[in-house]
UniProtKB/TrEMBL annotation:
It comes from the Eukaryota. GO terms for molecular function: DNA-binding transcription factor activity. CDD domains: bZIP. Residues 22-37 form the BZIP domain. This is BZIP domain-containing protein. Residues 1-36 are annotated as: Disordered.
Amino acid sequence: MPPKQRPSPSADPLTKTGPSARRQKQNREAQKRYREKRNRLYKVNLMRKVFKCVYYEDINQHLVELQEENMSLTGMVHQSELFEASTRAAVEHVHPVHHQTIPPAAELQIPHHPADSQRLQDFVSDDIAWDELLAKSDGTKALAG
């Protein structure tokens, strides 16, 4: 004998009006859980979007502050360059700069005129003559003493 099977509730279509009371309760609970989960995900997504907006606003504000600081620093650099240029112009006005390229050794050398070299030789020979005279006078004093 085959095992006894229970008749299915849908077997008699005339008495069936819908899901059982237990199944209706389960469906309501499932729908409630679905709505709660959907609302929770919606709120999380909304909060994420709000956070991004606030984050972008903070970044935008910081960017504006950096741009203002950059503009003020650029202005300060420009003023510094203008001051440096005016100072350089004032110094060149007071002390004109020679724009020749003169090597340092050449600056120390004084060009001599032929007459100047003769004067220099005369000066050196006068110096030698005085040294000889002084030596002779010292020798005569030593002999006299």
